[in-house]
Design goal:
- By secondary structure, the chain is α/β, with parallel strands linked by helices.
- Helices cover 43% and strands 14% of the residues.
């Protein structure tokens, strides 16, 4: 709990001091990189300060061009770990409520993150279309296809939006495995435990042979590849090798 208070307090000060000038600079220059990288580096600094380290493997699997990063989601701790491990500026599809936070919400908007309201099907479809358009224009994205954090760290079933997005944009999918984050900070918990998070990039999956009608097959292929690469205690129950 003390670690969470430390992050909340110092991150708030960091946002209040650097947030407004970075927002103003981005609005005036339309240059996103300083806002993105300073914000991310600041967040990762506070993560390390509370005893959390991030080990990254498989970056050589990331293709040079635009791609869709697809990651499992177990904890609030895995978001900075995964984004920090990706060696390029990306945009993220995030739940709509996060865009209502002062300063942070404006930063997400300027960084061209896209809000998603999963409770409204038409709105969610519009968000996917907007992301596909951005990807065709050269912007890589990160999405969490489970739609919500796992309670026990095990991989859940995927929603279809990520795979519709990849097919519409015509970009490869890079599966991203995040291991150990659920032990750092469990869902619905404010307690942070020191430890290591492993972020691993798997080989990209070419989607060019899939039509929209075959999105379920692509969904299953990516799900199985990620389940097989996770530790036994994070694989879905019933999946080969699950513990």
């Amino acid at each position: 709990m003390i670690r969470m208070v430390f992050i909340a307090a110092f991150l708030s000060v960091f946002i209040l001091i650097l947030g407004p000038p970075l927002l103003l600079y981005t609005l005036v220059t339309r240059h996103i990189d300083p806002l993105y990288w300073i914000g991310l580096k600041g967040l990762m600094f506070f993560v390390r300060m509370v005893g959390v380290s991030v080990r990254v493997e498989g970056q050589a699997n990331i293709p040079a061009g635009v791609c869709l990063f697809v990651a499992n989601h177990t904890s609030s701790a895995d978001a900075p770990a995964v984004v920090g491990a990706i060696p390029r500026r990306i945009a993220v599809l995030l739940k709509e409520s996060l865009f209502k936070w002062p300063i942070v919400g404006q930063a997400f908007t300027l960084a061209r993150f896209i809000p998603v309201n999963r409770a409204d099907r038409e709105s969610a479809i519009a968000s996917v279309e907007k992301a596909a358009e951005a990807m065709r224009a050269g912007q890589s994205f990160l999405i969490y296809p489970e739609g919500t954090r796992s309670l026990d760290g095990r991989l859940q079933e995927f929603k279809k939006g990520a795979f519709v997005l990849a097919i519409k944009a015509g970009v490869p999918i890079v599966p991203v495995l995040c291991s150990g984050a659920h032990r750092i900070m469990a869902k619905r918990s404010l307690k942070i435990q020191p430890g290591e998070i492993l972020v691993e990039f798997l080989a990209p999956i070419d989607v060019s042979g899939y039509s929209l009608e075959e999105r379920d097959a692509l969904n299953q292929r990516v799900h199985d590849a990620m389940a097989a690469g996770l530790p036994p205690d994070q694989r879905p129950l019933g999946f080969p090798g699950a513990a």
